[in-house]
Design brief:
With 778 residues, this protein is α+β, with helices and mostly antiparallel strands. Helix content is 41%, strand content 20%. The strands form three sheets. It has a 16-stranded mixed sheet that branches.
Length: 778
């Protein structure tokens, strides 16, 4: 037994019970966030049907279907047929749209259908609820999770809603197009569809993985009423306002972004586990977690039924939207908690709560100082040491993982974090051991209570700052601190000896809330950010350890450190075992391109693989070499510095895009060129680059793409109209000495007919490109 416990250990059985309780708390908190598969509802006609949704999902994900592809047209036609089979009259909104940033534009085909509410005729000012998901996919994906699963949930919602009495509000269903290339479908609806003026609220569903809970990660501003409604409609939803604060700082966009900027109130949902499926060939229908799919479908119906009965005129909060009722633009602090649901309250309470907890911290310190002499300077020094520990542990853990990359470089391309959760567990156990031993060592000079209140001091400082600057994140520091401080006060009032087992149990009771709250967040942060940002969840964990300092030190007095270290090493070993066959199960596809420049009679096979696999790519012989190809991609394109294996290729017979300068004149002391571009063979997308000169203004089909001077100007047109597009650019009046060029590249994702004899293994992702290069006259 001395191998497990020090000779002076007095509470072995209490320790075992306490550790078991700790493990059960963590396990329970993690279990609560995972969706559970439920039995089919008794009234299937008015509820979500998982079996029917799975069949529909299989049908729309048989083929890869990026915008402009044949597979994309098949998905569109299938959705239209399903809607008509429900007795609906869907609209096909065909429109040319461009992204806000100007990097993409194209012909989109949104599918729109409207269910009339019972009050729509009596009250013309009644606002409609908009439900949205996108039906396009990225080129090399089947688009099951992103976003086919949401599309079929919408079909199921329509079927269920049709089978019941009408809701109070109209519900508009938007199956948007072109989301993956620049939110084009959402932009087209927002800019030109007549129903846009009726929209009072938006529910958007998109995904970054194929499993895990359906999380509400982004509400619109002024979300208090939205969060109240969410808590009523879906009490079990996984969400918190920290996600909102973090997401606001990120550059990520979804279709939701377009409507949020228009001032439309709304909620944005996604599942994020198993990121190996995201934008890859592994985004297949058979890999979708059935429990997650069922949860999404049921949640969607619950939300539509709830908000379909609300007066949505009170929700729009910005952009000067004309509303009939007063606007309440206050945000909420909110977070999910096991068995309780979504806890929420106004952000205006965040700072008063922080000040109240500051007072409680002072009270707890005073009560503790009555039982023993606590030194203020030692407490401040402990706070400083805690800050150093947070930074050091976060930095060292990230560097340790970077070292793993050096030994196992394949991990750099491991996109699925879920298989590595044992790694996370092992790292966190070793982190807890390192932090605990450091704190135990510091007890030679400072009392454990001074260490504890040093951590409290840091927590209070963070809480006050966050409550004032980022109130949505304040819950993370307020409520754990409350219960821990209450346990400190109880220990001081009852004068419980810090060597007793009762002392540890009281500390665990105070820490229970923190453990239940932090455990899922640490896991979700690791899933969302990946091991490339391992330091973030480790820092979050170290913050929690600071609050649990007395409990951690008590445990390390009762158990040998080597047992804890062994537990961490076992977890890491399990992580290595779990990821051992990852690349066999999820091999990274081989990239192959056919590139032709007919003007120069150049046709090449290209692959960017580091190590050429000639068995897979038999077209590359022994004479193949690696080199950069700026003459194909343009010196100003990022790919001009990539190294490719290249080999001569036969003429595939793909027509190059046509480029015709229609006019070239001076306007407002600038040179304006009007250029007509056509994709003869209807490419999936057409990239347009202006090289060697600065573009002062640009528009496509009279839609403005940029208004300020820009070097290396580039845009892409997707699903180009058969008649082509008109590009209007303005350049400096004098281009003497400038070697300006217009480079237009058509991209296809199907093997050309003339190359059908080429055997491409299923492990190869293929693209074909043809390039036209036109000089800009001086």
């Amino acid at each position: 037994m001395h191998f497990f416990f020090p000779a002076q250990a007095k509470h072995r059985w209490s320790l075992i019970a306490l550790l078991l309780s700790l493990v059960l708390l963590i396990y329970f908190s993690l279990l609560q966030i995972q969706p559970k598969l439920k039995q089919n509802p008794t009234n299937a006609a008015t509820e979500f049907s998982l079996s029917a949704a799975q069949i529909q999902l299989q049908k729309i994900t048989q083929y890869k279907h990026p915008i402009g592809s044949a597979g994309h047209s098949q998905v569109r036609d299938y959705l239209l047929a399903e809607l008509k089979a429900l007795g609906l009259q869907p609209q096909l909104q065909t429109s040319f749209a461009s992204s806000e940033r100007g990097h993409a534009s194209g012909q989109v085909q949104n599918i729109v259908v409207r269910l009339a509410g019972r009050n729509s005729q009596q009250n013309q000012d009644k606002k409609a609820l908009l439900l949205m998901a996108h039906y396009d996919a990225v080129p090399n994906s089947f688009g099951a999770a992103d976003d086919g699963v949401s599309v079929v949930s919408m079909l199921q919602s329509l079927r269920a809603l049709k089978a019941q009495a009408p809701l109070a509000n109209d519900v508009i269903f938007l199956f948007s197009d072109g989301e993956e290339v620049g939110l084009l479908g959402a932009s087209a609806f927002a800019q030109s569809h007549p129903w846009m003026k009726d929209v009072g609220m938006l529910l958007n569903f998109d995904n970054r993985g194929n499993a895990g809970p359906i999380m509400m990660f982004e509400p619109s501003a002024g979300n208090r009423h939205l969060i109240t409604g969410l808590a009523k409609a879906v009490p079990e939803v996984i969400s918190n306002s920290l996600m909102y604060e973090v997401y606001k700082a990120l550059p990520n966009d979804t279709d939701f972004t377009v409507f949020r900027k228009q001032g439309v109130a709304g909620l944005n949902f996604a599942m994020i586990q198993n990121i190996s499926s995201y934008h890859t060939r592994y985004d297949r229908h058979d890999l979708i977690n059935p429990a997650s799919q069922q949860q999404q479908g049921q949640m969607m119906l619950q939300l539509v039924r709830h908000f379909g009965e609300q007066d949505l005129r009170t929700l729009n909060v910005s952009m000067g939207a004309s509303m009939a009722a007063p606007v309440n633009a206050e945000d909420s602090v909110y977070f999910s908690f096991p068995l309780v649901g979504l806890i929420h309250y106004p952000t205006t309470l965040a700072l008063p709560l922080a000040l109240l907890l500051t007072g409680l911290a002072i009270t707890a310190f005073w009560l503790s100082a009555r039982t023993m002499r606590l030194r203020l300077l030692a407490t401040i020094a402990s706070a400083c040491s805690f800050i150093v520990a947070i930074v050091a542990i976060g930095f060292l853990s990230q560097q340790a993982w970077n070292l793993v990359f050096k030994f196992y470089p394949a991990y750099l391309e491991m996109h699925d974090q879920d298989t590595g959760h044992f790694y996370l567990l092992g790292i966190l156990i070793i982190t807890a051991l390192a932090f605990g031993l450091t704190q135990k060592l510091l007890t030679r000079w400072v009392h454990v209570k001074e260490l504890a209140f040093g951590a409290v001091l840091v927590w209070v400082a963070i809480l006050v700052f966050v409550s004032a600057r980022f109130p949505g994140a304040s819950f993370l520091f307020a409520w754990p601190l409350l219960f821990v401080l209450l346990s400190y006060c109880y220990l001081a009032l009852k004068k419980v000896p810090d060597t007793s087992s009762a002392y540890a149990w009281i500390l665990l009771a105070g820490a229970g809330f923190s453990i239940l709250l932090f455990s899922p967040l640490i896991l979700l942060f690791n899933i969302a950010l990946g091991f490339h940002s391992l330091g973030v969840p480790v820092i979050l964990f170290t913050l929690l350890l600071g609050l649990l300092t007395p409990l951690l030190v008590w445990i390390l007095h009762e158990i040998r450190a080597r047992i804890v270290l062994l537990g961490g090493l076992v977890a890491i070993s399990l992580g290595a075992f779990a990821t051992a066959n990852f690349h066999e199960a999820h091999p990274i596809p081989t990239q192959l391109s056919y590139v032709a420049m007919p003007q120069k009679n150049v046709s090449l096979w290209l692959t960017p693989q580091r190590h050429l696999d000639r068995k897979t790519l038999s077209m590359f012989g022994e004479s193949s070499v690696q080199k950069t190809l700026p003459e194909l991609f343009g010196k100003e394109h990022a790919r001009s510095v990539w190294t490719y294996w290249s080999a001569p290729a036969p003429d595939a017979g793909i027509a190059a895009p046509t480029v015709s300068i229609q006019s070239d004149q001076l306007i407002d002391n600038q040179r304006e060129m009007v250029i007509h571009i056509t994709s003869t063979d209807s490419a999936s997308n057409t990239r347009i680059q202006i090289e060697g000169v600065s573009v002062l203004f640009a528009s496509v089909q009279d839609q403005v793409l940029s208004k300020t001077a820009k070097e290396k100007w580039m845009t892409s047109v997707y699903a180009m109209p058969k008649t082509g597009v008109t590009l209007r650019i303005r350049l400096a009046k004098d281009l003497v000495g400038k070697n300006g060029k217009i480079r237009v590249t058509d991209t296809f994702y199907a093997l050309p007919n003339k190359l059908s004899h080429v055997a491409l293994p299923a492990s190869v992702d293929f693209a074909a490109q043809t390039i036209t290069l036109v000089d800009i006259p001086e």
